[in-house]
Structures are given as structure tokens and as C-alpha cells.
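Why do we bother with holo predictions? Because pocket geometry can differ from the apo form. Keep that in mind while you read this record for 4-fluoro-L-phenylalanine.
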Amino acid sequence: MAAAGSAVGLGNIWGFPTKAAGNGGAAFVVVYLILAFLLAYPALMAELTIGRHARRNMVQALQAISTGPISRLVGTLAGYSGIIVASLILSFYAIVAGWMVSHMAEPVSTMLGMTGASEWMTGGSTERNLIFTAIFSSLTMLIIMGGVEKGIERWSTLLMPSLLILLVLLIVYVLTQPGATKGLEAYLMPNFDHFNPQMLLAAMGQAFFSLSIGVGTMLIYGSYLSHQESLPRLGAVVTLVDLGIAFTAGLLIIPAMYVAQEAGTDIFAADGSLIAGPDLILQVLPALFETMGSVGLLVAFAFFTLMVVASLTSSISMLEVPVAFSIENLGLSRKVATILVGLAIFAMSSLIIFNFDTLFGLVISISTEWGQPLLGVVLCIFAGWIFNRNQLLTELKQGDPHIEDSLFWKIWPTYVKIVCPTLILMAFAQTIL
Ligand code: PFF
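The structure, written out:
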């Protein structure tokens, strides 16, 4: 549940539907599904297997499976990079999630007649951003301070099902509104004109981000797993849940845009493409909710609660990466580690807020478009080339006595060694050339 919670987040409910809308609807969905299974699932398996075997954070885990000074050095560097990239992702993620918190609070203050406060909450001021990022970061820190079972697992088990219920209720509502069918068409009718290398790259980046790969999150969750669990099955469940929620979120977001258009909101940008990014969730959807009268306040509250819940189960998984490192390598207590790391990441978020135009896009690009897939390559190479083969296979057999009959057993060990890193690097070569 926690691993699925890490995977399901803003990337699914916001990133995936908007990318699908802008890249040919179902055509993107098909490419994304293929890449998720072809590239992201094998990389996820590399992380989980290394993590459960080493039972330590990414730095120590990669050091532990290293065989000589060079692999040890590369492993150490990759481990530290993972921690830095996880922290960078959290620093921008907390800002976006903070917007979700402010939009969740807005209908409440409107209901209470505090219109001034409502306007402030949905305005884009620096103070608003700082305060709500701080609120979201504090929530994340509180859960992480609770530890693995009482914090991460308990909250993920509670929050994940509520997210699904909220999502389905909202879909039922939106699909009964005028304009929704046009949205369904835009989402589900493939338009292969959009098929190009850029779209492939967008789909690959989205798959790595969505499955939380490369930064040691899944590795550290793997390190907390018992040997009774079957890793391939667990990885497949996480991948399927993640894809399922992304696909389902598309059924909500894209029809909702067209319902908003029917109600008079402009959903196309100046160049004729669908509005994506912050504007979609923060302008188009609230405009839609407003047309619903007082029910709209409730729907807005429900929707943004959904976003906050999804964000929290992801943000805790990011914060756990540097926190686990500080506990295991620096000997800090969980409480002290959480406070120190949390404050450092909040300082980074503040830096981004104060230099929003230059830093926001840059941090996203460095961490998710470059950092995650490249670290994914390193993890595949460690699993395929450096990790002792017998140990790797033994680890996979734990919790899965019949694994030798499976397709996974026949394909993955070779696949992760050669095909997966090559394909990821080829996708990169495309962008550089
Ligand atoms: N998978 C999360 C999402 O789709 O929103 C984002 C994420 C979580 C990325 C954890 C990286 C990470 F370590």
C-alpha cells in the first residue's frame, strides 16, 4: 500500500491526464502503457530487489553489492545523487501540493463567508506559497516522524482507499454533465499524428516519475519488506495500481475540462493546444466547480482533498529517502533527522518560491527528466552486472517458490542487464541529438 501510495500522486492525477491530452489522447496512453511495462517495471524491480537484499538505504545498498573500488565509487555517487534528487523533487512537489492545500481550504473559507481569505488563498502571492508549502511540509514531516509502521504504512493504508473512492465519486458526477462525452472522445480516441520522439520521451519521463523510480524511494521501501513477499508480484501490483489510477484520473480530468468549456471556460491555450500544467487544475477546474453553485464548494473541497491525499503518500516516500540515510549513516534519531532534513528541504522550496520563474522549471527538469531516468540506468546496471548473480536470483526466489516457472524469471535477469539500460539511453540520445 505504501509503495502504491508513493507511486500514485500528482503525477497520476495531474501529470498523466494533461500529458495525454496534449499528446494525442489515447495514442499517448498506449505508448505510456508500453513504456511503463517495458522500462519502468523492470527498473522498479531492480530497486526493490537491491533494497530488500541489502536492507539499507541507497548509498549503503549500492556499496554493499559492489565488487571492486570502481563499482563502489559509482554506487556511492549514485546513492548520494539519489538522495539529492529525491530531496529536489520534494522541494518542488511540496510547493505544488501546497497549492492543493490552499485550494482545499478555499471552499471552506467561502462557506464561512470569508471572501477576503478565499481570494488570498487562490491568488499567487509569495506569502501564500510559503505558508501553504510550510503546512504541507509539516504534515509530511509529522507522518515520517511516526516511523515506518505507525507513520508511513498506517497512513498509506488509510489514505489510498479514500483516494480511490473520492476519484470514482467525482468521475460519476462529471460524466453526467453536458460536454463530458467530448472530453471522453479527446481522451480515448487515438490521434497518431502526435506520434514523435518528443512524445516518447515525455511518456518515458512520466513513467519514471509516476513509479517513483531512480531516487531510492522504492529501494528503501524494498528494504522494509519481508522475505515472505513475492517481489515480482508486488512490483506488478504497484505498476498496475499506478497505471490504473492514472488512467482513471484521465476519465475525470479530461471530461471535466470539456464540461468546463461547455460552461463557458476557455480550455485552449493561445496556440490551440489544451491548457496544461498549473492552469489546468488551478483555473479550469475551479471555474467548473463554480458553475455548480453551492454543491460546487463541496465538490471542490473533495477534489482538492483528493489531490492532497495523493500528494502526501508520495511526499512521505520522498522524505523517507534522506531521513533513512541520516538515521542509518549519521546515527541521528528519527525525530531529529526528520526535523533537520525537513527544514533543509523547506529552505530549498523557499528558494524556488522566491525565484520561481528561473528555478521551478529548472529543478523539475533536472530532477525528473534527467536525474530519475539516468539513475534508473545505474540501478539496472547494478542489478544486472554488479550484483552477484546467485544472490540476485536467491533474493527473487524468497517469497516466490515457484518463480522458476514464470516468464519473469526467464526474461528479467537478462533484460535488466542489457535491454532496459540500452533503451533508456537510446531515448536520451534522441533528445540530445
Ligand atoms: N510518483 C509520484 C507521483 O506520481 O506523483 C512522484 C514521486 C514520488 C517521484 C516519489 C519520486 C519519488 F521518489
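The chain has one domain: 2-432.
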